[in-house]
Amino acid sequence: MAGTIASLLADFSSPIARESSGIGLLRAVKVTPETDPEPQQPVVDRQAEFIKSVEARVRAEEREIARKEFEDAIAAEKARHLEDMNDQRTIWVEQQALQMSAQIATAVEHIEANLSERIANILRPFLSEAFRQQTLAEFKDVLATLLSGRDASLLKISGPEDLLTAMKSHLGHYESSIEFFSSEHVEIRVATQDTLVQTQLNSWSVRLAQALEG
Prior knowledge:
Elements: H1 2-8, H2 15-21, H3 23-28, H4 46-123, H5 129-148, E1 155-159, H6 161-171, E2 178-182, E3 187-190, H7 194-213
């Protein structure tokens, strides 16, 4: 009985037996290394991306359309404003040209009428009616020569080109006695020199003196 029990017990006194019962068992176990799980790939929603792309493209097209419409509206407003300005200037030029031309014509006519009347009154006590009329007619011819600008311009007018063009159309035969100069500012100056007036009147004065002496 005792022998039987002893045969069943392991002999722990032997190194070989201890190795077989301890470390040997550990060696018999196969160790498999643990691997990290693969990261889960995100689920791509193709339809959502397509919708976003379409929406972005539509918004960009709408912005471009709005920008173009805004630029067109600004350009149209500028063109309308410029057209209004041109229309207003055309009206102003015509009004100013008509007014200035009428004033020039009236002034020249008054000069001629006043001088002729004064000369006639001066000559009345010295000359017969017939000769006075003849002398007065000659004086009017001399004065007409001065005012016509055939020998030299009577007036010099400077101003914007469109205003000068409009004035010429209203001055009639007085246009030939006026020199026109393009300028930003309007100016009217007397161009006839004193020497020219004296030369034109000398011949008439000589004939008048001869008539008075005779």
